[in-house]
Each structure stands twice: as structure tokens, then as C-alpha cells.
Design brief:
By secondary structure, this protein is an alpha/beta fold. It has helices at about 10-30, 45-60, 75-90, 105-115, 125-135, 140-150, 170-180, 195-200, 245-250, 265-285; strands at about 5, 35-40, 65-70, 95, 160-165, 185-190, 205-210, 225-230, 235, 240, 255. It binds NADPH dihydro-nicotinamide-adenine-dinucleotide phosphate.
Length: about 290
Amino acid sequence: MSAQIIDGKALALKLREGIAQEVQALEKDTGIKPGLAAVLVGDDPASAMYVRNKKIACEKAGLYPQEHLLPAATTQEALLALIHQLNADPKIHGILVQLPLPAHIESKMILQAVSPEKDADGFHPVNVGRLVEGDPVFVPCTPKGVMHMIDSTGVDITGKRAVVIGRSNIVGKPVAMLLLHRHATVTICHSRTKDLPAVVHEADIVVAAIGKPAFVTPDMVKEGAVVIDVGINRLPDGKLVGDVDFDRVKERAGWITPVPGGVGPMTIAMLLQNTLESAKRFAKKITG
Ligand code: NDP
């Protein structure tokens, strides 16, 4: 039987409508409009498109977007000065620094300069620590979106075998941590995992975050599994595909996310959600 498709576009739209209503209510009650500052250094077309899409999404949901488009030659000192200025700006509740940054800038230093209280992407070590402790403040957007998508299936995560393929700091590790906190038994696979297909075959829930087209094939997938495809790969013909061989795996999985229209739209919705939650925390601090 063919898998049920987890429609990220539809889920994200519903979330964004809810966020827009909450943004309106917050502004009405407290006068605070959630503000998100996006910082882009250089003119990488993909990064510029991501920042533009985030700005449009902010505007549609009624948030206050602030864009900082800086030339590629921007010095580390100038970028740090901007981050400090945004940290102190009461109109801003979320800051995102679009990665990758140019090679002459130390990304780690910049991400650590963002106030942990405005760290909309959840990449600051303080927020990573909070997540590991099981008491997160900002959850990274893509992993947060992945959890929403799994929850949308109605599958109870508790006690399930989950396999995350990929161990990056922005996707694989935080997804694994979130699944663990929801009482899944979690295995993380990476490029040195032995007999990866057999490990993946054990999983009731598979999250693929590798960056390799059609890496996950039907023989690796347990019948009825939930398969979440985080990968975004552009083929030579320009087509966008994920890390899962969608057409074939969907005949075996119970639920599956498409690419495009899967995790991608959820990531932006979660960014808005993180900024809204941050603005609510600021409002609470002010009003007591
Ligand atoms: P990274 O390149 O940082 O990490 C990739 C991971 O995959 C690494 O841990 C690597 O293992 C593992 N890997 C690579 N090749 C293999 C292999 N042959 N077998 C097993 N594991 C392998 O990628 P990201 O986590 O940043 O992104 C992953 C994918 O998700 C990309 O396609 C990216 O574009 C996409 N993405 C999508 C987002 C969205 O919003 N939908 C957001 C962020 C990312 P090792 O550590 O051993 O090298």
C-alpha cells in the first residue's frame, strides 16, 4: 500500500495562520510586535533567496522583519558590531545569521555573539545545552519542524526505534535529541556507520539529513515506517530532490514527506514560531 504523504506546505500554512493570529493578539495586549532580524553577508543566490523568503513569511504573518544585507567584504568586527546592536534593540526578538558566512569570518564567533535570548535558530551553545538537558528555550527550526511532522501522523513516538541519518549540529544531532526526549530509542548514523541499511531497517521512524539524492532506498525501510526527508539536493537538470528515493520508498513506508513541499516550508514556519515565542517571553518580562 502506498504511504500517506505528510504535506509540509499545508501543515506550515496552518501553523502560519495560527502564528498570525497570536501575533495580532500579542500586539493588541502588549503593544509588542515580534521582530526578526536577518543578516546576510555576501551575495550567494541561494542564501539571498532564503533570506527573501523568510522576510516575506514574516510580513505575511504580521511580524516586523529587519533585513541587513552586507557586502562580502564586511569585516568580522563590523559584523560583530551589528550583532551587538541587534542584541540591544528592543524591537528585535529573533536574530538569524544566514550561513554560510564568507571564509574570512569565523562563524562560530558570530553565532556565539548572538544573545541566547534572541537566538531564533537555536545555534548558540547555551541553547544547545538547554536542548540537551531537555529544557529547551529555542529549538533549531528544521528539527522542530521534523517533530511537528512526525506528530502530525498521530504515531506515538514513545518506545519507537528511531534512526537519524546524519549528525550535523543543525539537523541530525538536535533531531536525535528531540526524539530521545520524546522517549524514542534513537540511533544516529553517519558516513562511518557499518551496515547502515540494516540499522535503518530496524527503524519505525527514519529521519534522513545527509545531502545525497536517493540515498534511502526501499530495501532499507521497514514496512509502515514514518520517513522524514530533510535533504535538499539539486540535480543537474535543476530538479530539487531529497535524500529519499521518494517514488519507490512511498510504496513501503507508512508515512513519507515529499521534497519539495515537505520539511522546507516547516523550517520557515518554525522560525516565525521561535520569534513569536521569544517576543512573548520579552512581553512577560516587561509586564511581569
Ligand atoms: P551536513 O553536510 O552538515 O551533514 C551531513 C551528514 O550526513 C553528516 O553527518 C555525514 O556524515 C552524513 N553523511 C554524508 N554521507 C553519508 C553517507 N554516505 N552515509 C551516511 N551518512 C552520510 O548536512 P546538513 O545536516 O546541514 O544537511 C543535510 C541535508 O539537509 C542537506 O541536503 C541540506 O541541504 C538539507 N537541509 C534542509 C533543511 C530544510 O529546511 N529542509 C535545513 C537544513 C539542511 P559524517 O558526519 O560522518 O561526515
